[in-house]
Amino acid sequence: MDELLEKSEALSSEFSRIFEYGPADESKRVIASWLMCSVALEHSVSLRQLVLHGNYTTAIGVMRLQFEAAARATWLHYAASDTAIDKMTRILSADNANADNSLPMVSEMIKKLGKKAPKQAVAMLTEFKDISYKALSSYIHGGIHALQRHGSGYPEELLENVIKSSNGLLTMTAMMAAILTGNKVIAKDISSIQRRHEDCLPQLLVKA
Questions:
Q1: 1-34, pLDDT tens digit by residue?
Q2: Does residue 82 sit in helix, strand or coil?
Q3: How much is the CA Rg of the chain, to the nearest whole Å?
Q4: H-state helical runs in 79-118
Q5: CA 26/CA 54 separation, integer angstroms
Q6: Residue 92 DSSP code
Q7: Angstrom distance (rounded) from CA 106 to CA 149
Q8: 148-162 core/surface letters (b: 16 or more CB in 10 A; e: else)
Q9: Contact, 176 vs 73, CB < 8 A?
Q10: Rounded to an integer, what distance in angstroms lies between the CA atom of residue 206 and that of residue 198?
Q11: What end-to-end distance do the CA atoms of the chain give, in Å?
């Protein structure tokens, strides 16, 4: 576990450098997606810290947040309407605090991405949702998974899969951020980083 966390930190360190470049332009769509990528990055960092300190139940709940942020970042760039972008980028106030209530949830976002986003990104979002989303909802809402696992303990294999899945979401987030920089060289580097760190990534990405 300690070795996997250490390798995951190395992976995150490489991907975090992408955010030093900044977005390619100041358009609302690009900025919205960029900021949501940064949110997803923050969740991945938090997840590893929680695992490191033994707060496993909360860590798994945070992975749901990371997934939704990664999905939202991708949707904002490729599939969101101009109206949706406007709602997300208005200056926050009491009048528009609930302006995002009408935005699509995860299933609808992935459906709308369809052929608009890179196939690998859509495939990963779809697989993650199909395999993990319902269980993660249990952790978010204090359901049976949270109660049983917190009471009986977490198998190491489960925790390792959580970390690898989080790293997979981080990889997708990094690719999205690289695209948003407008620098094709940075985007190409993602594949090289994946190969260097494939032992801490889920099989879907290793095989891609």
A1: 899 999 999 999 999 999 999 999 999 999 999 9
A2: helix
A3: 17
A4: 82-89, 106-113
A5: 40
A6: P
A7: 25
A8: ebeeeebeeeebeeb
A9: yes
A10: 6
A11: 25
pTM of the model: 0.92
Alpha-carbon distance of 173 to 7, in angstroms, equals 18
User: Which H, E and C letters describe 48-68, residue by residue?
Assistant: HHHHHCCCHHHHHHHHHHHHH
Q: How many CB atoms lie within 10 A of CB 68?
A: 20
Distance of CA 99 to the CA centre of its chain: 23
Burial degree of 29 (CB within 10 A; 0-12, 13-18, 19+): buried
Encode pLDDT of 81-91 as tens digits: 999 999 899 88
